[in-house]
Amino acid sequence: MTSIEDPHAVACGRRERKKQQTREALHEAALRLVEEQGLDGTTVEQICQAVDVSPRTFFNYFPSKAAAALDLPDAAISPEAAEEFRTAQGELIPALCALIGSSIDHSQQRKRMKELVMRRPELLPAFAQWMGGIRDQYVALVSERAGADEAFTAVALTMAAMSVLVHDSSAAGERPGAERLLEGVDALVAARSQRMRAAD
């Protein structure tokens, strides 16, 4: 029996694959050039030439050469994760940890970002700006379920816990990111009452 495919769906699928391939090629070219020449020594034109696309095409995918080298995504929250948060019940912080923790479970890209920034510190401003935008996306979503001030505080606390986890190799493991992230939040809160050691 022969199946009849929808030509429109096939064409859409082909276009999406082509777009993804172009994005990956731009990222790989930017990454290689920045590694070889540094950020200041690399131009958007060089990246475009390596992939054989125009600067206009480049800016359809990335806002800057630093963003291309780091492969910074525009959005941090998938529609599925956002909907799960919107329908969550119970306490705010555990629901937020589940939301942000899902990205930790797929953090290979984040690991590459961190390693690249450590090798090329000139990329840090672009990375910090991107993180600020990501924070704003989380705050906007959390504000749907909490007051504006509470949303900002909850996101700041949870992202601080994520930063602790990133720098703590002992926190890695097979456990879900949400579970480790909630432990990180608890550790930060516990630090509030930590007593100083006696002075020498």
Automatic annotation (TrEMBL):
Looking at the record, the residues that make up the HTH tetR-type domain are 20-80
Q: Which residues bind DNA?
A: 43-62
**UniProt-listed InterPro entries:** Homeodomain-like_sf, HTH-type_TetR-like_transc_reg, HTH_TetR
Asked if Glycosyltransferase is a keyword of the record, the answer is: no
Q: Please name the SUPFAM superfamilies in this protein's record.
A: Homeodomain-like
Q: Could you name the domain of life of the organism this protein comes from?
A: Bacteria
**Protein name, entry field:** TetR family transcriptional regulator
* Keyword DNA-binding assigned: yes
Species of origin reads Microbacterium capsulatum
Q: Sorted alphabetically, which keywords does the UniProt record give?
A: DNA-binding, Transcription, Transcription regulation
Give the matching PROSITE patterns.
Answer: HTH_TETR_2
